[in-house]
Design brief:
By secondary structure, the chain is mainly β. It has helices at about 1-10, 15-25, 45-50, 60-70, 75-85; strands spanning about 40-45, 55-60, 95, 105-110, 110-115, 120-125, 130-140, 140-150, 155-160, 165, 170-175, 180-185, 190-195, 200-210, 215-220, 225-230, 235-240, 245, 250, 265. The strands form three sheets. Strands 4, 5, 11, 12, 13, 14, 15, 16, 17 and 18 form a ten-stranded mixed β-sheet that branches. An eight-stranded mixed β-sheet has the order 3-10-9-8-7-6-19-20, with no helix packed on it. A two-stranded antiparallel sheet has the order 1-2. The longest helix is centred in the first third of the chain and has 10 residues, at about 15-25.
Length: about 280
Amino acid sequence: MFDTLRVMTSKRQGIPASLKRRLRQHHNFTCAMCPSPIYDYEHIDGYASTGHRFEDMTLLCPRHHREKTAGRLPASLVRKYRNQPYSTRRAATGGHPTHFAGPSQFMLIGDLTFETAGENRAVGLADQGEVILGIRVENGAPLIEIDLRDEANRPLLIVRSGELRFMSASWDITVEGQRITIWSEPETKALVLDLNPPNEIRVPHADFWHAGIHVRAGTASGYGGVQLRDAGESGHASFSGGTWIGGHFDIRDSKNVRPDAFFVISNVSATFRGPGL
């Protein structure tokens, strides 16, 4: 009796970080039973029965977690999906909406601040006019746009029209509160993204590739700003500080300046500092 009481009243240990990562990778960053990229860590037969064991744990989205907790989803079916997760052979998770609203939106990339200004404006970083890390406003709705890739041009995170999708090419992805962190390799964070609705997005760290351009920002840049280099390291541009209103940086195309583009960065040998270009 004493031993049973001691087990029941003992403090439950947290799930080790390495086990969480192994579960995320096994499930391709989604619920075991559907493509939802938002999930809970679940003990199939209950923590009291198995403790934290890889083979007895899975990932369940809030809907499937509630179904199992209420007894409407049997553990046997959960285990079947845990052994053959829904997204095992899929390149991307299902979409998940973001929730931003209001006429003024702020995108902070490192120590640069981008602010929207009116309809049909794109702010942030772009490639030939297409936003790859920023926000656009369409019919009064602010929409996040992100196209995050590694050096081999494999997509790691895609956000289109405010709907995010995680990609299986990522080494790891964590969602903790308002922060999303994408790893391209074991020691390399490709993106740290803080979602602060209704009107602010922060990127304190970025280290990714797009169209042969290596983009580093925030803590990855070494000085807090945005740094761009081409694949041969022959051209570079860097920006630090300032608030940019109603415009975007184009990372490589200086010949295709859209009317709403504030500044254009191309892969030429030049270094720029501060807002007074």
